[in-house]
């Protein structure tokens, strides 16, 4: 009987942990390509001033994208990378592109369900 209770309790705890990890979040921060993020000495300043033209360079686009928010870098998944590339190609912002990303966080990555630009008018 005690083993059954222990097994049920552990199963419930595991299910709660999985649910907590898959909770949907919204993160707002600056969009930056992974190549520039990895080489930045001051990531906060680099992300705020990162140029759209740099992020669209072949080597930068190939490296994928991330969002820098609250002093943490969240790498985008494949869907997020595609959305980020499209956004960068259509934005009128020349540097410091701010985005809002909805999705689930797993470690230092975010599985994107929605990515939109945050403009000064919507801040």
List keywords for this structure.
5-stranded mixed beta barrel; 46% helix; alpha+beta; OB fold (Dihydrolipoamide Acetyltransferase, E2P); 123 residues; 5 strands; 31% strand
In brief, what are we looking at here?
The chain is of the alpha+beta class and 123 residues long. Helices cover 46% and strands 31% of the residues. Strands 1-2-3-5-4 form a five-stranded mixed beta barrel.
Describe the structure.
This protein has a 5-stranded mixed β-barrel. It has 123 residues and is an alpha+beta fold. The longest helix is centred in the first third of the chain and has 20 residues, at 2-21. The N and C termini lie far apart (57 Å). The chain has one domain (24-122): Beta Barrel (OB fold (Dihydrolipoamide Acetyltransferase, E2P)). The mean pLDDT is 89. The radius of gyration is 18 Å and the shape is elongated. It has helices spanning 2-21, 34-39, 43-49, 52-55, 58-63, 78-90; strands at residues 24-33, 65-69, 72-76, 98-106, 109-117.
């Amino acid at each position: 009987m005690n083993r059954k209770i222990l097994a049920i309790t552990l199963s419930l705890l595991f299910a709660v942990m999985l649910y907590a990890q898959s909770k949907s979040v919204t993160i707002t921060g600056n969009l930056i390509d992974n190549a520039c993020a990895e080489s930045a000495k001051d990531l906060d300043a680099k992300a705020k001033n990162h140029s759209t033209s740099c992020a669209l360079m072949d080597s930068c686009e190939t490296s994928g994208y991330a969002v820098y928010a609250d002093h943490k870098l969240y790498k985008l998944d494949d869907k997020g990378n595609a959305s980020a590339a499209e956004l960068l190609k259509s934005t009128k912002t020349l540097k410091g592109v701010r985005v809002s990303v909805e999705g689930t966080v797993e470690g230092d990555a975010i599985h994107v369900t929605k990515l939109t630009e945050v403009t000064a008018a919507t801040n």
